[in-house]
């Protein structure tokens, strides 16, 4: 099994595209309006022109109304291929401090994708199918993205098999300390009523108290969800892909530490959930 260190590093090097102040400027130049239209369009553009329902399904944790405000309007304003190009522009800018190292690792990271089982991982598969970029730094980041979304797809599968909808999954993550943000409810678009309903559902299971605090059972359940995600991810990598990731872990972690030291506000915290 590849280590959590590896996935933490992948997440750290990938995630800056969501937090850089440049997002609205770059996507706004294409006609996309507001942060969330740029977010949903850029993360899903590898799927083509997905409907709101497809975005809700693949992203999982967002309130459907938040997605419907952005999709499909985004596709009336900008072509998916242009959105992907804009996203790569942001990624290239962000990785500039570690560009030489990223370029040197790009072929090795791309080679990992050849040994992965994409069944049941639609968002990751779409990103893996994006044509390799002639700029090795961009290609490095696109391979990171496919890997990041691979773990995300596996995590969604585990959450849904545990019977956790988007609001409940987020409420549990917040209560148990696995969420990056204390204002996760607002960020993911859930109303106060929806959030409380999710807490009530989790309280019936004995995972949260009625006021939303984690119980020992809930804390253990959330840890088991993360461990199950690791097992599902590992099952989808063949021996060669696993070996490649193991040999890349130290270098990716070193890069992530160097990069996050220069961009402390853009990492969103350590990897905890998709």
Walk me through this protein's architecture:
With 274 residues, the protein is mostly helical. The chain has one domain. Helix content is 68%, strand content 0%. The chain contains 15 helices and no strands. Helix 3 (34-44) crosses helix 7 and helix 8 (99-112) packs across helix 10. It starts with a helix and ends in a 12-residue tail after the last helix.
Low-confidence blocks of residues:
269-274
Order of helices and strands: HHHHHHHHHHHHHHH
Tally of alpha and pi helices? 15
Q: Tell the overall outline.
A: globular
**Rg of Cα set:** 18 Å
Distance between the termini: 19 Å
Count of individual domains: 1
Category by helix and strand content:
mainly alpha
Question: β content, as a range?
Answer: under 5%
Overall pLDDT, averaged?
A: 94
